[in-house]
Specification:
Length: 342
């Protein structure tokens, strides 16, 4: 991996894990998500939502769900491996020695503490910037420091008070005005209650952020040397009629995404979907599979109606590399149909 392939948020070591959860292939690391999009032209589908707004489906985030064809191609290229998430966590905890477990917990606490302190410093910087923008420079000193927002108040509280003499000083008696307010004023319906700060939460609390990825000790970060039948390392099983067409178009530089909303298996983009519209709605078929005329007309009109071409493709079962001359895209042939009108 070159420096140009290094994501801005960190490095990605290959092979990286793809987590299998309930027969769905997930990615939880944003660095891996951006890496496969940029290097391997795979976008997936973001499916994460907010706990407070679980019904919204407009702004989604991590995790990223991969199509089975995307996971299979990454495994085929040797850049990823599949991890059974539930089994890996269970076996990872059971196989962990006590000293390794304690070291892992201490390391995790240190990382979470450092992250929480960084978040606290950023929050303090935002507070200072907001006060400077409003011209309230006098309030910055009251805000304290990032590490101790109430440091000034604490120091004032910790200052020892002068010893109180049992005999009152006559000078103090004459100098101190006599208060006419009762010590315990009666609280009525129209009295203005002052908020109490005795039980207020301390601003020194550090809130830890929950990491989005598991520690590598849970999914065995070394190269998978176990057979594919092991529960921790599984092999994706894509459709034998669809996968060759997907692999062929991917090798030509197309970005492919699910095409269900357009009545097809895939949508093929000539570049990143954030910059380009799709050019084809694609269906992968068997080599000897029959296509009715109604399907051809319907697919052609559908593709033209959404300003795309309808494409079908299949793999020649008799094709072998090096025998039929040029490799010609894994022995796959594709045809596009566009409704021209007469």
């Amino acid at each position: 991996m070159t420096d140009a392939d290094t994501p801005p948020g960190g490095t990605v070591a290959e092979p990286f894990p793809i987590f299998l959860v309930a027969n769905r292939y997930m990615l939880y690391d944003v660095n891996v998500v951006s890496y496969i999009r940029r290097v391997y032209h795979m976008c997936g589908c973001l499916i994460g939502t907010l706990p407070q707004v679980p019904q919204q489906n407009v702004f989604l985030g991590l995790p990223l769900e991969l199509m089975v064809e995307e996971a299979a191609l990454l495994v085929e290229k040797g850049v990823a491996y599949i991890v059974d998430d539930v089994a890996a966590h269970k076996t990872g905890r059971e196989a962990m020695l006590e000293r390794d477990r304690l070291r892992y917990l201490a390391q995790r606490d240190e990382e979470l503490k450092g992250l929480a302190e960084e978040n606290q410093r950023e929050a303090f910087a935002r507070k200072v910037a907001a006060l400077e923008k409003k011209g309230r420079m006098d309030l910055i000193s009251r805000a304290g420091t990032p590490s101790s927002p109430r440091g000034k108040q604490k120091k004032e509280k910790e200052t020892p008070a002068p010893p109180i003499s049992e005999e009152p000083n006559p000078a103090d008696i004459h100098a101190k005005p006599i208060s006419t307010e009762p010590e315990n004023p009666e609280v009525t319906l129209f009295s203005q209650l002052q908020p109490s700060t005795d039980n207020a939460p301390s601003q020194d609390l550090i809130f830890h952020s929950t990491p989005t990825t598991s520690h590598p000790i849970y999914h065995l970060p070394t190269l998978p040397t176990l057979p594919s039948t092991t529960s921790a390392y599984l092999t994706p099983q894509p459709s034998p009629t669809r996968f060759p067409t997907y692999r062929h178009l991917h090798s030509k530089g197309y970005f492919l995404s699910p095409g269900l909303r357009f009545g097809a298996q895939y949508m093929a983009y000539p570049g990143d979907p954030l910059r380009f519209h799709s050019h084809f709605v694609v269906n992968g078929l068997g080599w000897d599979e029959e296509i009715s005329v109604m399907d051809i007309v319907g697919g052609g009109r559908l593709g033209t109606g959404v300003k795309k071409a309808w494409m079908v493709g299949g793999e020649d079962p008799s094709w072998k590399p090096g025998v039929n001359g040029e490799e010609r895209g894994y022995g796959v042939r594709v045809f596009s149909v566009e409704w021209g009108g007469f």
